[in-house]
Amino acid sequence: MLEKKSIQFSYNNQPIALAEGVLTLHTALILKHLLEEQGAEVMLTRDKPNQTAFGITFKEWLNTAFKRSVDSSFSINDITEAEKDFLLTKATQREIFRTYFNNIDMRQRAKKINEFAPDLTLVIHYNVDEKNTGWQKPSTRNYNMVFTPGSFLKNELEKPSDRLAFFRLLLSDDIETSLTAGEYMINSFIENLRVPAASPQDADYLTKHCIPLRTQGIYARNLTLTRLIKGSVVYGETLYQDNEKECLLLSKTDTEVYGIKTSARVKQVAEAYFEGVMKYYGVAP
To answer: For residues 215 and 217, what is the distance between their CA atoms, to the nearest angstrom?
Structure first.
């Protein structure tokens, strides 16, 4: 995969192959059904495999919108002339995806979310052990964590749009409401998944790029979506996919729910998000 968000290795003579995009999609689809049964209105930024925020695959975007998008980015000074030349004449598909497309895809997701104007936004991810180099073998480590808005680094306020997002966070209550929602979520992850919350020393990026907040496992981090999405945002990172127990559980297709054939562990993750949401709104599931 171009994004390299997949792991593949053999463990206990069993081949393990996991794609985070599939895990997150199944989680989101199950969660959507659970919430809608309670009367919630739910919008997903994607509801099909390999779908981008533009409603098409990356390859389709590359064939139909790439040059126009680069020209537009250059016209608004979002990229330099040198970056434009590199993208149009020298970059590989992987380089285009990682250095350019991933950013505009995230911005498009934020745009769709802000137009929907939700009461709460959930960003669903599954994590890996950063110390497990190459992810070619299982890890013994396993943690949950949640990111909320904040923790701007000194080089992350250079663009006017980023400074505007910074002031919006200062002048609104988005940081406080995101933290409150995040606390319900991390507690639900710990209780339902039986996996502890990460402390700052459990990953380098938690000390280099984040600010630990009042509850262990919750960190302010200036990611594209925590910065651009308006309102309460909970950016969940459940489990380590490469953990020696999790990789076996997540690689199974041992349950079917709402017509979705997936892992029973994925169903548990969706239910953990669901319980966190319900408790945030004062409704016991």
So the answer is: 6
CA distance 8 to 127: 15
Closest-CA residue to 252 (of 262, 238, 239, 240)? 262
**Residue 186 backbone class (left: φ over 0; alpha: ψ -120 to 50; beta: rest):** alpha
First to last CA, the chain: 37
pLDDT in tens, the chain (285 residues): 444 567 888 887 888 889 999 999 999 999 999 999 999 999 999 999 889 999 999 999 999 999 999 999 999 888 999 999 999 999 999 999 999 999 999 999 999 999 999 999 999 999 999 999 888 889 999 999 999 999 999 889 988 888 999 999 999 999 999 999 999 999 999 999 999 999 999 999 999 999 999 999 999 999 999 999 999 999 999 999 999 999 999 999 999 999 999 999 999 999 999 999 999 999 876
Q: Which among 43, 59, 44 is positioned nearest to 1, based on CA atoms? A: 59
In angstroms, the Cα distances linking 142 to 113, 123, 163, 275 are 30, 20, 35, 21
The C-alpha atoms of residue 250 and residue 210 are separated, in whole angstroms, by 28
Q: Global pTM?
A: 0.93
Amino acid at 32: K
Q: Where are the alpha helices (DSSP H) in 129-244?
A: 160-171, 174-193, 204-208, 224-228
CB-based contacts of 134, cutoff 8 Å, min separation 6: none
Q: CA nearest 191: which of 285, 112, 51?
A: 285
The HSE-up count of residue 232 (CA atoms within 13 Å, CB side) is: 16
